Amino acid sequence: MSPSDTASPAQLLALVRDDQWDAALAAGLMDYVPQPGDEHLLADHPDLPQRLQHAQQQLQRAWAARERYRQRGQRLARRAAEREARRAPPPTPDIQKPALPSAAAAILARAKAKAAGRFP
Fold first, then answer.
1. What is the three-class DSSP state of 3?
2. What are the helix (H) ranges across 30-101?
3. DSSP, res 5
């Protein structure tokens, strides 16, 4: 939103006072910079610049807290995955019996036949 599209400080204050945070953000709340004479825009609110700056600070703190919360969730998930990986048994390798050479297979077949009472 360009500076010409932003709402006046009085409009921003009205949005903030009505808890219309999304509308205040869309109207340029975070772009507000106090100007000389802003305290005189509304006779009943000489603290207008301070209130708008306070609203900006509140939002910045809330956004920072949300980011810390997201990072914490990611950190906890990573630690849980690492813990599970340490607890899991190591994968068993697929060990296949090596094929016998043909000479050894012939010797084994004769031994089995002899044990069975058949001798070739």
1. helix
2. 48-87
3. G
Q: How far apart are CA 85 and CA 66, in angstroms?
A: 29
Contact 31, 6 (CB under 8 A): yes
Report the residue count for the chain. 120
Residue 62, CA atoms < 13 Å, CB-side half-sphere = 7
Contact 107, 100 (CB under 8 A): no
| pLDDT by position in tens, the chain (length 120) | 444 467 888 899 999 999 999 999 999 999 998 888 888 887 788 888 899 999 999 999 999 999 999 999 999 999 999 999 888 887 777 777 667 788 888 888 888 888 887 655
User: Which is nearest to 29 in space by CA: 13, 48, 46?
Assistant: 13
